[in-house]
Amino acid sequence: MYIEAITIFLIIGLYFFVILQFRTALKVLVNRVNLLDNQIAEAITKLPFQAGGDFEPINPLQQAFANILTNMAMPKQERAENGQFVKATIIEPAERE
């Protein structure tokens, strides 16, 4: 009878010990996650991606080359005398014999 009571008492004590250890570990984990969150937030605010940041200016030669490529890739649309776009003519492919 005493052995069963001592066993139950030890099991309940062990249960509470595990619960307390789990709570402590959880608190430590939450504190570390909060610290990491604050460090990431601080690092993000130090990035130069704000308006007027330390960006390299656009290279005029690269910009001109990009404009040439863009103009070559874009289809030309014709305009009427009044400035409106003219409907594009669709050219059907030739039939094969």
Provide structural commentary:
With 97 residues, this protein is mainly alpha-helical. The protein has one domain. It has helices spanning 2-45, 60-73. The mean pLDDT is 82.
What is the topology?
Blueprint: H1 2-45, H2 60-73
Question: What are its keywords?
Answer:
97 residues; mainly alpha; 2 helices; elongated
Summarize the structure.
With 97 residues, the chain is mostly helical. Helix content is 60%, strand content 0%.
Q: Kindly state the mean pLDDT as a whole number?
A: 82
List the secondary-structure elements in sequence, H or E: HH
Spans of at least 5 consecutive residues with low confidence: none
In whole angstroms, how far apart are the ends?
Answer: 103 Å
